[in-house]
Amino acid sequence: HLSVFDNVAFGLDRTARRAGRVNEVLELVGLGGFGDRMPHQLSGGQQQRVAVARALAPRPPVVLLDEPFSALDAALRSDLRRDVREALRADRATGVLVTHDQGEALSIADSLAVMRDGVIVQSGAPIDVYASPVDPWVAGFVGEAVWLPAEHPLLAGVAVVGSGGRALIRPEQIVLTSGVDAVVVRRDFHGHDAVLALRLTDGMDLTSRVVGHTIPAVGDSVGLRIDGAARSF
User: Fold this and answer.
1) Which of 103, 162, 173, 174 has its CA at 20 to 30 Å from residue 226's CA atom?
2) pLDDT band at 11 (very low <50, low <70, confident <90, very high)
C-alpha cells in the first residue's frame, strides 16, 4: 500500500528524508524517477531493487542478502546482482550474500566463504578458492571437478601441484585437438558454450567445456590436452 518512495523512506527519520536520501538510493539501484510508483506497477526485478534500496537507506554498515535473486529469471538475475554489487560499492556498504548458486557467489563476491555443516572450510578471493581448493570436497563443491590418477598419460608434461594420488582439473582445461584419444558420448549445448562427456581409450570418462561454433557431435573422435596446471590430493 506504500509507494516506492514511502517504502524506501519507511525506516528513515524526517531529517534523512529531507536530505534526499530516498532519491539518492533509488538512483543507486537504478530506480530514479520511480518514487511515485506502486508495487503492482513494478516488475519482479524492480521490486527486488526497492527492497535493496530500503535496506541501504539508513546507511547500515552491513547488509545481509539471503537468496535475494532466486525467484528471478536468469538474464534479470545476472543484471540485478551486478547492479546491487555496484550499489553496495557506491554506498560503501559491506554486503553478506547467502546463496546456493555457485556462479552467483563467484561473480558477485570480493571474498568467498565455503561452509560445510555450519563450519567455514575455506575463504578467500573467489578465483583463489576456485583455483586452489583446500580439499577434494571444496574442489567438487565449487565448480565442476574432473579427477584423474596423478600418473595418467593425459597429464604428461602438465605441472601437477601437490603429491597426492588424484589430480584435479577443471572441464575448461580440457582442450580439444586433433587425434583419437577420446570419443564424445554426450553433448549438452548451452548457447555460450557446450559441455561434452568424453570417454578415453582406457575407458575413463571426462567432462570438457568448450566454446565456439564447431562442436563435435556424439560419436566423434577427438584429441585432448590439458591447458594449465593440475592440483593433486
Assistant:
1) 103
2) confident
